[in-house]
Design brief:
The protein has a single domain, classed as Aldolase class I (TIM Barrel, Alpha-Beta Barrel), CATH 3.20.20.70. The protein has 14 helices and 11 strands.
Amino acid sequence: MLSLDTKFCRLFRIEFPIIQAGMAGGPATAKLAAAVSEAGGLGTLGAAYLEPEVLRGEIAEVKAGTRKPFAVNIFASKEKDDFSRLEEVQQALAPFRKELKINEPNISSSADWSRQQFEVCLEMAVPVISTAFGLLEVEQMQAAKAAGIKIIAMATTVEEAKMAEQSGVDAVVAQGSEAGGHRGTFSLENHPDGAQIGTMSLVPQIVDAINIPVIAAGGIADGRGLAAALALGASAVQLGTRFLIAEEAGTHSAYQQKIIESTEDQTTITKSFSGRPARAIQNRFIKEFEETGTKALPFPSHNTVTRDIRTAAARQGNSEFLSLWAGQSLRLMDKKMPAAQMMQEILDSAKGLLME
């Protein structure tokens, strides 16, 4: 009989097999991470864009809000800046800046604090580090293990999951194509648009291929999704879009409203905002940038180039120019509520199904 007391729960010392995704860029706040962990799940601080000193303060805030395990999510990307086509891309972006009444910024490089972020996590003895876009370096993995820190990596194919296990991670997130936000694919040379394998297909194949706990992600938003994931052999689930509308999330109010109003057929995979394939709710920016025929710069360069547009759009409450990362289960996102209430609803539903 399936149980909510899974191998992942025991290994990571949490009560329930629910992880809140580490949504970088504002939504996955210290407050949200602490609330999810306090409710018995594994909260995650989205740290990928945080300066090291800011990260130090955010980790301290999570620790002030809970004594239970939590994770810090960072990028482990090997991608490098490429601004060789900057002028062409800036021309395509000019109409957006004109409408927002902002000037073109001077750009020469993208900030990369990933190594310093990892050192801050070590220094502050965070319980769990999770990575996106790749795996920790060998010496980083050794340092984390020596410090007693658990490691989670994201995979979008069976081969990526095998590589993650071989690197020494403690659990793997199997990210299906339904998931919102960036594809976690780190073999982009083989999958330039990100691997697009559905959760239902990906999870059992990764479960069969590796010997560490598998976390199902992509399109999971309620107790039915949790029960189904456990039936597929997963040891936990990771939810992102559902937690975007938690009261503790740092998600812009205009973004939250779009999540609540949108439907399953209104998302698309796009590189228009960051240069990396990601699932978002369709809006004018995606449509009009793609209509220019201009190819996005690679990540992280394109993400850096469009940042001023996204920042101005947020300031003006203009959701048409925001990166509205979201998964495909949008009709299940009906209203804002505290994270603990979300957790309870999911668990009550799952328990009812597992006991039938």
